[in-house]
Amino acid sequence: MPNFIEGEVILVDKPLTWTSFDAVNKLKHLLKRSTGLKKIKVGHAGTLDPLASGLLIICTGKKTKTIEGIQGQQKEYTGIIELGATTASYDLETELENFKDSSSISEEDIFSVARKMEGEVDQIPPIFSAKKINGKRAYDLARAGQTPEMKTKRIQIYSFKIEKIEMPEVHFRIACSRGTYIRSIAHDFGNYLSVGGYLKALRRTKIGNFQVENAIKVEAFEELASQHHVELTAQQ
Question: What whole-number distance in Å separates Cα of residue 78 and Cα of residue 63?
């Protein structure tokens, strides 16, 4: 096993429905058990929504000091925008509404909007986000029936590539700066086309030079940790 106490950077392929904290807590529990230690410092470099899968970078020990630097690096995502409806959360957390016919949207319309959205953008985060409004999380206010006022944030969309169109689904690949909400991109994309849209699926594939292809599944990590625990117990 690597030296997790001194510090390691672990690339994890976060499963759907798990929060980033679920993944951190799971690995922290496994590391404590496999090393026999009561305390170990563990943190993640960039939150990934429960309805998104893919690359989650988890740092341990002294490597937690590198988290800020990792978070600031360019990120890449793949996913699906579904046209012809919206949701309050901009994804599938809330009910579909505002249905519109998207059959008249052409492929050229879609490619044109994607090109238009590249570059520096003043983005409005979703009300169902972890942004703090007067000390409270925006999603807590939204789930309580309130409509928090969200401030715009300047972000950068380095590239917005359309990979496949199967109407009403638009498959994409986006490279963007820190703090970008892909859900807001999906929502704005639908608005530009005047039919509405929401984020149907999302997967983070890169953070800087770190790639999801090199990430470990939680189940595989659990198996390695259990094996190390057995070996440690045998040595004792």
Answer: 28
127 alpha-carbon distance from chain centroid? 16
In the annotation, is 49 catalytic? yes
- Contact status, residue 182 vs residue 79, Cβ threshold 8 Å: yes
- In CATH, the number for domain 9-71+210-235 is 3.30.2350.10
- Segments making up each domain of the chain, as ranges: 9-71+210-235, 75-207
Q: Say which of 13, 22, 49, 188 is annotated catalytic.
A: 49
Q: Taking Cα atoms as reference points, which of 69, 103, 99 lies closest to residue 86?
A: 99
Q: How high is the pLDDT of residue 120?
A: 96
75-207: which CATH number, 3.30.390.50, 3.30.2350.10, 2.60.120.280, 2.40.330.10? 3.30.2350.10
Burial 60-86 (b: 16+ CB within 10 A, else e): bbebbeebeebbebbbbbbbbbbbbbb
In this prediction the pTM is 0.90
Torsion angle of alpha carbons 93, 95, 100, 104, nearest 10°? 30
Is 75-207 in the same CATH topology as 9-71+210-235?
Answer: yes
pLDDT digits (tens, 9 = 90+) for 181-203: 999 999 999 999 999 999 999 99
pLDDT score at 117:
97
